[in-house]
Each structure stands twice: as C-alpha cells, then as structure tokens.
Design a protein that fits this description.
The structure is a homodimer. The first copy, chain A, has helices at residues 3-6, 15-24, 107-116, 118-144, 147-162, 171-178, 182-194, 210-217, and strands at residues 26-30, 46-51, 54-59, 65-71, 76-77, 93-96, 100-105, 166-167, 198-201, 204-207. The first copy, chain A, is of the alpha+beta class. Chain A has 2 domains: 3-143, Jelly Rolls (Sandwich); 145-217, Arc Repressor Mutant, subunit A. In chain A, the strands form 3 sheets. Chain A has a 4-stranded antiparallel sheet. Chain A has a 3-stranded antiparallel sheet with strand order 4-3-6. Chain A has a 3-stranded antiparallel sheet with strand order 8-10-9. In chain A, strand 3 and strand 4 form a beta hairpin. In chain A, helix 5 packs across helix 8 and helix 6 packs across helix 7. The termini of chain A are far apart. The interface between A and B is large, with 41 and 41 residues.
C-alpha cells in the first residue's frame, strides 16, 4: 500500500494537492531507539506512520521524562511540526520504540495545504482534539492516581501492546514513561513481586496474576 | 461594540454565515462564582467573552480541583462545546471568577460553520494549539516544579491580574488552582510569611517582597 492509502482525507484533495503532497513526502525507515526530534527551533515535519511504534514524551531540565502518548501505524504526528501551529511553544520529543516506517511531510507543505483545504483543516482539528484528550487523561493520572495504580495500568497496557505477559522492559524505561525515578519503580515492582503479581528477572517482567494487576489499577 | 466585533474571522464569513451565527448567539451575564458547565453529556456551546474572567478546571472524583487555564475578554472557550470535537472525552468545568458578559454560540451552529468555513476551521486549530500549549506547560509545572515555586509564580500572576499586591483569595481557592490540599497551601504561605515575603490576613494575602517571590518562582 502506498502513501495515498495512508494519508487521511486523500480523496478530498484536488489532483494538484495530491501531487504536491505525494511528491514532497519522504519515506524513511527509523531504527528502534532513534530520537527523531527535536531541538525546539527545528521543524521536522509531520510524521505519517506506515508501521512500527513511536513514543511522544517531554523532558525536564534534569533529564526526567514522561510519556505523553504513543503513535501506531496510520497515526499522524502533528507535534513534530509544531512550528506550523501558532502559539504552540512546547517541545515534544519523539522516539522510535520499534523499527518504524514512516513518511515525513514537510511542515510548510502541510501548513499551506491546511490553509487552503477545508477537509485537511478539519482533520487537523480532529487529531489535535484527540491528542488533547490524551493529555488531559495524563494530567488526571498524574494528579489523582497513586503510582501503584498507574504502574499496574501501564503493565497491563504493555502486555496488550506486546501481546505477551512477559515484558522486555527495564525499570529505567518504565520510570521514563511514568515521569518518576527508577528507584521508585523498582521498589513498587518488588512490592508487586512479594504480592505474587509479577516475577522479576534481569530486563524482564513476567505478569503472573493479571486479575491482581487489574484490581490494583482500579 | 457588538457581536461582530468580538467574533474572530467575522470578515471572512459570508453574509449568510454572519447572519446565522449572530442571530443564534445568545448574550448572557454570568454572576461571579457561577459554574457554567457541565455534566459531561451536556454541550453548553462555545463561549465568547465580552468582559469578565472565566476559569477552566478539572475535578477529581474526590472533589479536588486544578486550574487548566483562564479566559479573558475576546477569548473563546472551545471546551464548553467539546461535543463538537470528535475523540474528546474529558470534562472541563468552567466557573466565572468575575462577573462576566459573554455570548453562547450553540455547538451545532459552530460545528456546521467549522465544517463549511476554512477560516473558522483554521481559527479553531489555532485556539486548540494555544490551549494545548497551556496544558503542556501545566504538566511540566506539576511534574517538575516544586510547590513553593508554583505558589510563588501563582501569587505573582494574581497580583498582575488583579493589579494589586493585596490578593483577596482564600487558601482553599489557591489549593483548587494548584491541585493540592488547603493545609499544604497554608503551611507554605506561613513559611513565606516567616521569610517576610507575604503578610497573611483573614481572606487576604499581601505581597510585601515581590523580588523575594520572583527568586523563589525561579
């Protein structure tokens, strides 16, 4: 399947618009672990995922991270081109969590398209509302859910995502997803292990009591 | 000044669109302290402020609050009509912090306009990006700034907003802005008082050392 299959509202574009965007989009393969953005002034462009998995996160001055949302195939990443959005002054980092195939759509091409095409503008509104919704969910989690519930929910989500009850993930990585320190995660995982809910091995966490995790996650 | 002065991109609407929106908008006066939204299913409509001040906040199951952003004259509140945005499933409460004059634009009217008018759709994108930016700032504050810095920054902002170094605000109200408990705010304010930075009176906080507050806020 090619670019036109993956680009949203493709059929609502004029032939000229279709030609402009498909000739300017660049197909790239990104190796797992690569950080794609960003130095703040840079404007990578929109990312349209064909396969793989990206993680959008923010970074504190001290180097702490928290995952904002994930992107999967068919998803569009708008904030890798936040320069096209007026009044948007934050920086979201993007990292490939798996080997990922994507198209990069140059920011200025998308911006011009959005300003002349009603379907593209409306679609952009939809993506932004969806991301906004995810970010509001995150705020509620950070403010009002205790870490044991957040960690339990995270492990359950990961098991679904990886289609496995054995997760190959370090405590450091989990801490970076949840915006906390590695030691805090290690302590909580050991508590889960004592409760017979997970089994810890080097670089691996096996979920042995899914129902128990569900109870904790609320 | 009337509705057409306050409605953004008014001059880019067709006469028919102008007529539809100005005849459907309802002018209302909201008394200070009134909570405007929302029961989640309800869709109040867009709010366009002529004067006054609104506070957008979220509420936990236990009744804790945190302020997401404020709205002033000329501002548009999109999330009082979040039903028009697909995939938006969070609930933002809106409260009048001052006596407020505003127009309510019915959600379905705005939605129809957004779907047929490119300027309105692009403008909606801009508002959403601006709010997104504020919410990202909030996440960074919650995660990575300690409460003393957040409280100092809040008091400085309030002094500018109220054009006074004496703030008529309770510790409970501050706690609701910052997503914490009243006791925590009281403790921190007493610490500020001991440092000679503020003077506390019943229902009032006087800032007596602005430079000191600035130093704390970072």
């Amino acid at each position: 399947m090619d670019f036109s299959t993956y680009f949203p509202v493709w059929n609502k574009l004029t032939p000229v618009q279709q030609n402009t965007i498909s000739t300017s989009a660049v197909f790239r393969t990104i190796a797992q672990g690569t950080v794609i953005t960003g130095d703040g002034t840079d404007c990578t462009g929109l990312l349209l995922l064909k396969s793989g998995q990206l993680r959008a996160y923010i970074l504190s001055e001290e180097g702490r991270e928290i995952t904002i949302y994930r992107l999967f195939e068919w998803d569009i990443c708008l904030f890798s081109a936040s320069c096209i959005l007026k009044s948007s002054q934050f920086e979201i980092m993007i990292e490939a969590e798996k080997d990922t195939e994507l198209w990069v759509i140059p920011a200025e091409i998308y911006k011009a398209l959005m300003e002349e095409s009603l379907p593209v503008s409306n679609y952009t509104n939809e993506i932004m509302a969806a991301r906004f919704s995810e970010v509001m969910w995150l705020i509620e989690q950070i403010l009002w859910k205790s870490l044991d519930r957040r960690l339990a929910a995270f492990l359950l989500d990961e098991a679904v995502l990886e289609e496995s009850s054995t997760l190959k993930i370090t405590h450091e990585m989990i801490a970076n997803h949840l915006g906390t320190a590695r030691e805090v995660i290690t302590r909580m995982l050991r508590y889960f292990q004592n409760e017979g809910i997970v089994k810890l091995r080097r670089g691996e966490i096996e979920i042995i009591n899914t129902a128990g995790l569900r109870t904790i996650s609320g």
